[in-house]
């Protein structure tokens, strides 16, 4: 093709918490999925990391929006501004006087409705995408982990993102059984906020709760390597005086228990529906965990004990979906599961 230099190929993992963009096997953008908008003019004030620093710290004239909730677009206008802004950032790194034709593959939750799928496609096209493909996230995660998704074997993936936990059994290039539940990173964060409110009478914002999850997040009350307790400061809900509380990983294991139990139930539900031949493949290969939730301490052990099948945390689980989306972009002609 004579003008192939005018075609830019981007693989986008449009996550509830983070958006990752790959180009030529390189991560060229990894930013929080958040925008800051001027309330009066609707003008974009900040994007990604800049907007996150403003989140929960803004004046009444500026609002911060997370365009995706539970893995799907909740604010169409903000999503379009965000995708457009991120694509513009990737273009600013190119030295070309022409605006390139964009070929884009976007990862979406497997439980998306027709309306939600159309919202992602429309947002991407309005943001400049000429040739847009969509891929279900568990399929992208399986590709990113390194599974041969076209083989006649059963592979099982549990992708715990920001908005949804995607559970899928994959064989012969298709999703045989899937379940998508809206219990994931955002729910864990609000569990932590609620726990601190109830147990310590302390009010913390989303960003602080997220930090606690990263520093002392655990799903087991006994760990071999124990993280240091985390000291959190905030206003006392009764007096508004500043107080501090020391949070241990046991506290977090206790407060996340119910949410993790819901994920366990969803996994067992998928396994119940799995055809016997594929089930035996899964027992042999184990089940793979990806997404930010896979980084919770002790999660693979807790799930292995509950389900009696070994669980493995993928290498660099945060970017498994993005890497898989990147592989799909290079093989759009060979992967029948891509949606146009």
Q: Your description of this structure?
A:
The protein is of the alpha/beta class. Helices cover about 35% and strands about 25% of the residues. The protein contains 10 helices and 17 strands. It has helices spanning about 50-55, 75-90, 115-125, 135-145, 185-200, 205-215, 250-275, 275-285, 300-305, 320-330, and strands at about 5-15, 20-25, 25-30, 35-40, 45, 60-65, 70, 70-75, 100-110, 130-135, 155-160, 165-170, 175-180, 230-235, 240-245, 285-290, 310-315. The strands form 5 sheets. Strands 3-2-1-9-10 form a 5-stranded mixed β-sheet, with helices on both faces. It has a 5-stranded mixed β-sheet with strand order 13-12-11-16-17, sandwiched between helices. Helix 2 crosses helix 3 and helix 5 (about 185-200) crosses helix 6 (about 205-215). It starts with 6 loop residues before the first strand and ends in a 10-residue tail after the last helix. The model has no long low-confidence stretch (mean pLDDT about 90).
Outline:
The chain is of the alpha/beta class. Helices cover 37% and strands 27% of the residues. The two termini are 21 Å apart.
């Amino acid at each position: 093709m004579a003008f192939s230099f005018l075609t830019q190929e981007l693989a986008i993992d449009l996550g509830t918490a983070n958006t990752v963009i790959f180009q030529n096997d390189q991560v060229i953008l990894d930013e929080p999925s958040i925008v800051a908008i001027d309330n009066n003019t609707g003008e974009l004030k900040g994007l990604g990391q800049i907007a996150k620093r403003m989140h929960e710290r803004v004046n009444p004239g500026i609002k911060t929006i997370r365009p995706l909730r539970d893995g799907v677009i909740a604010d169409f206008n903000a999503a379009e501004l965000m995708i457009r802004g991120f694509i513009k950032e990737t273009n600013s790194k190119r030295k070309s006087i022409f605006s390139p034709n964009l070929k884009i593959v976007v990862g979406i939750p497997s439980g998306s409705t027709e309306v939600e799928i159309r919202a992602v496609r429309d947002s991407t096209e309005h943001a400049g995408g000429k040739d847009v493909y969509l891929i279900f996230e568990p399929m992208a995660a399986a590709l990113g982990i390194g599974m041969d998704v076209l083989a006649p074997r059963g592979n099982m993936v549990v992708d715990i993102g920001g908005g949804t936990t995607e559970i899928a059994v994959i064989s012969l290039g298709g999703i045989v059984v899937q379940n998508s539940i809206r219990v994931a990173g955002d729910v864990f964060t609000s569990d932590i906020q609620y726990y601190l409110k109830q147990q310590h009478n302390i009010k913390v914002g989303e960003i602080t709760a997220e930090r606690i999850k990263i520093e002392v997040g655990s799903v087991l009350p006994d760990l071999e390597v124990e993280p240091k307790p985390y000291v959190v400061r905030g206003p006392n809900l009764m007096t508004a005086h500043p107080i501090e509380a020391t949070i241990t990983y046991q506290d977090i294991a206790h407060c996340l228990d119910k949410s993790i139990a819901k994920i366990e139930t969803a996994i067992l539900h998928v396994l119940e529906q799995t055809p016997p031949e594929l089930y035996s493949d899964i027992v042999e290969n184990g089940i793979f965990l990806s997404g930010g939730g896979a980084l919770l301490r002790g999660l693979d052990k807790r799930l292995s004990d509950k389900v009696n099948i070994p669980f493995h945390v993928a290498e660099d689980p945060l970017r498994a979906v993005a890497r898989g989306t990147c592989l799909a972009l290079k093989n759009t002609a060979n992967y029948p599961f891509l949606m146009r």
